[in-house]
Design a protein that fits this description.
This protein has 4 helices and 5 strands; from the N terminus they run ββαββαβαα. A 3-stranded parallel β-sheet has the order 1-3-5, with helices on one face. A two-stranded parallel sheet has the order 2-4.
Length: about 110
């Protein structure tokens, strides 16, 4: 089964618990073996949000071998979504998790 987790339009330290609660159980086990992390609604992400997203994706990938698929808007992102995607790009997030592809190139 696959679980879709939609990041809120503003992903800050105040949304971390909700995000993590969709991925990790109280026993620190993944809730599924595959997650689709939907970034299409994201309009703002702060450094705490980037750190949380990076850390949980690394944990899924390297520690528990769970697949994370990223849903991104590559056709016509809103200006706010594009800015947050550019920020993630500048942080190197897509280089690590999309195998060097950028959010401007379709990964499907």
């Amino acid at each position: 089964m696959t679980t879709q987790v939609v990041l809120p339009n503003k992903f800050t330290k105040y949304e971390l618990n909700n995000f993590l609660g969709n991925i990790i159980s109280e026993n620190l086990e993944p809730l599924d073996n595959q997650f689709i992390i939907d970034l299409t609604k994201l309009e703002f992400i702060d450094t705490g949000g980037v750190a949380c997203l990076y850390n949980i994706c690394m944990w899924l990938k390297e520690v528990v071998s769970v697949e994370a698929i990223f849903k991104i808007n590559t056709i016509n992102p809103t200006s706010e979504n594009k800015l947050s995607m550019c920020y993630l790009e500048d942080c190197g997030f897509f280089l690590i998790f999309l195998m060097g592809k950028t959010f401007l190139v379709s990964v499907e």
